[in-house]
UniProtKB/TrEMBL annotation:
Domain PAC: start-end pairs: 168-220, 295-347
Domain HTH cro/C1-type, first and last residues per copy: 10-63
Keyword DNA repair: no
The protein's Enzyme Commission number: 2.7.13.3
Limits of the PAS domain: 221-291
Protein's UniProt name: histidine kinase
Entries under InterPro entries matching the protein: Cro/C1-type_HTH, Lambda_DNA-bd_dom_sf, PAC, PAS, PAS-assoc_C, PAS-like_dom_sf, PAS_fold_3, Sensor_kinase/Photoreceptor
Biological classification of the source: Bacteria, Pseudomonadati, Pseudomonadota, Gammaproteobacteria, Pseudomonadales
Keyword field: Cell inner membrane, Cell membrane, Kinase, Membrane, Nucleotide-binding, Phosphoprotein, Repeat, Transferase, Transmembrane, Transmembrane helix
PROSITE patterns: HTH_CROC1, PAC, PAS
Amino acid sequence: MMENSFAFRLKELLEHHKLTLQAVGTALGISRTAVHKWTRGGEIDYDNLRKLAAFLKVNWIWLRYGEDALQDVQTTQVVELPMTDLRRRYTAEIMESETRMKLAQEGARIVTWEWNLISDEVTYSPNVEVVYGWQVNRNEDFWVHLPEEDVLNMQAMYAQAVAEGTGCECDFRIYQPDGEMRWISSRATVVRDSAGRSIRMVGISMDNTDRKVAEEALRNSEERFRAIFELAWGALAYIDLDGTWKRVNSSFCELLGYRAEALYGMTFQQLTHPDDLATNLALLERLLAGEIDRYVVEKRVRHHDGHYVWVRARTALQRRQNGEPEQLISVFEDISAQREEQARLQARIADLETQLAATR
């Protein structure tokens, strides 16, 4: 350790005042480890330097840079610069910019924060209590209000970002004083010094509870729809406007013997009997043109094993909010038994008519 160094002067002062590392850390509101790093040559930031010098009752310039630096400062003549129009405009612009930034932060419920990785000190923008629900002055004030799962995930994420000197982002939950839980989106980046060491992490956090609630409601809605779609009594299908199968339920798969994944690469035109396709396409054309709201068609559809199944297909058009067609919704009913009975009756009628003609 060099005699003319910050670490040397600090250790001498601690020995002179008979101060422990813990006593200094407590007085400055930082960890004992941070003070220990300073005594071993670690960097100290400006704010903590000023607080440390005040606590030790010494000049901060002397403490950090030594006797020569202090003498240079004391012998330097201060030059007073007049408040020119340029400086006035520049000062006004800064104040206006800071005001706009503050209003934007408060309106969007955005918190800015900075974590000193050397001293473990953390600072937040004044609106942190409005967004988080708590005043946060130390990391310990923050972690106690988060679920343990989120704490472990975030600490691991931050440790990796610090080690790699990269950015990170996450969503976490924080409990409010009334017990309500809010969702916070946070994004941060690591700042390195000239030697490439990670010294600070700066970030922003904003309340995104409304988005999370909306996403959860959407997921629940989709799950309910999926349950209804799968449990529906009939065979249901969503079909793209070009005829591609978009989504089918298990009843439809059972009807035709296909797996859903196999159907998604096919169109209804490929499965419709050639003799029935023209009628189906003509009705579809009228539906897309807005001439009809829905149509019903009886047709034969090819089963996976090659035979055809008679179905009654009821089809409607789903439109987007702007009125443009989005997709077809079809319900398929197996009418093979009805068709067989109809064919049997027609054959019987034809047979009876033949017998009646023969008796005349």
